[in-house]
Amino acid sequence: MLAVNDAVRLAALRVKLRQQNPAADYSGRPTAFFREVLGAEPYDRQMEMLKAVREHPRVAVNGAQATGKDWCAGRIILWWLSSFHPAKVIILGPTHAQVAKIVWLEARKAYYSSKVPLGGKMLETPYWRLDDESFALGISTDNPYNLQGWHSPHLLLLITEAHNMRQDDIEAGKRLNPEKILMTGNPLTLMGEFYDAFHTRQDLWHTIKISAFDSPNVKQGRDIVPGLANQAFIDARGADWGEDSVLYKTGVLGEFPESLEDSLIQRAWVDKALTSILESGEPHILGVDVAAGGDKTVLCRRDGPVAKIAWKGHTPDVMGLVGRVKMYLDEHAELDMRVTVDQTGIGVGICHRLKELGVKVNEFIAGEQARDTRRFANAQAEAWGLMADAFREGAVKIDNDPALIAQLCTRRYEIQSDRRIKLESKADLKAAGGRSPDEADALALTFSPIAARRIKLWV
Fold this sequence. Notes:
Layout: H1 4-20, H2 30-38, H3 44-55, E1 58-63, H4 69-83, E2 87-93, H5 96-113, E3 121-123, E4 127-131, E5 134-140, E6 155-159, H6 167-174, E7 180-185, H7 192-197, E8 206-210, H8 216-220, H9 231-241, H10 246-251, H11 267-275, E9 284-289, E10 297-303, E11 306-313, H12 318-331, E12 338-342, H13 347-356, E13 361-364, H14 379-392, H15 402-410, E14 413-415, E15 421-423, H16 426-431, H17 438-445, H18 449-458
Parallel strand pairs: 1-7, 1-8, 2-5, 2-6, 6-7, 9-12, 12-13
Antiparallel strand pairs: 3-4, 4-5, 9-10, 10-11, 14-15
């Protein structure tokens, strides 16, 4: 191994050679760097990754098993620090093992087998230092560092196993204001930044999907790249899992599942609700899910089987939201609409003020006892459970709202020891990388038996 001083001198020499021969500058030629410096030959989908990182500020790569995305990501670290100065690479992952034993292991392999010595000092722990202003550092969110202060004019944020990352940790990485972000992961989630990059936030991300069928071993019909998926791999997974299974679709095809196996509402039910030809009717209910923290306040209106989001946004104060609800009710006064309000936080004040204004208000408390105590753990689980029943029976029609659809299909549940249904908490949902299900919660409020039973007394 080169001594540190020798490595520094060699790095300086490389800079001088690039000045004398611009063709040796690899900052815009990552594929050439892989071939000429590392002695590595990427296949077409990996070359697509390299081109995307070169040309786009945010890149998300969704790969099936054994498709080489981590092989490529580890070598991108070497290209980045060797081509820009000053430069930094921050690697984020859910656990130390996932950072050190996957993407960093690939970087170390390439570093020590490189045709051209790359200089600096690379440690087994995720750290490679060229100088004080150029280094790569791996961080696991199960043992978090303070992400503040690691800024650079050429900062690459590499997020590995992105499907398992907490949204708060991804946001912390974004606050470093990186020049480039590369997310890699598997299609094993229906929520969070990684999922959204391929769905509701496609305008913010350049996305790449890699299937096992993209492997050159499969295309050539022989093993030309050791370790990549081959036809035997595909056949074995098909035999083990079945080609219609979620595991086959995610692990072989690289496709996101339609719904999670433990989600309360299945995607097929939601798709049916999107295309339903049901007509509006009674009862007329307005569900008001009141914002907490940075979440949205959502008004969802349901006229019998037909539901739609009436309004969503952030309200500065209680009176502002009361005014908006009252104005909406006045505009539709002919419906004699009742309102179900989530009393969490400022919802209590909203309920009281709406009552003072003569509005028929149903006060909903998520944690209170369910009406059907044999089936549901609390009122919130009951509202969602009855909503799920309506979707399963084809008794509801909704608009094509991407946020609502994603939330409906990703709310997990569990069967407690007493056989009652309990919903995944919002805290656990956010910790797993999801967002607050504001739209879906507002729709669920319209299915609460508190709302439905009382309405029948007035209509």
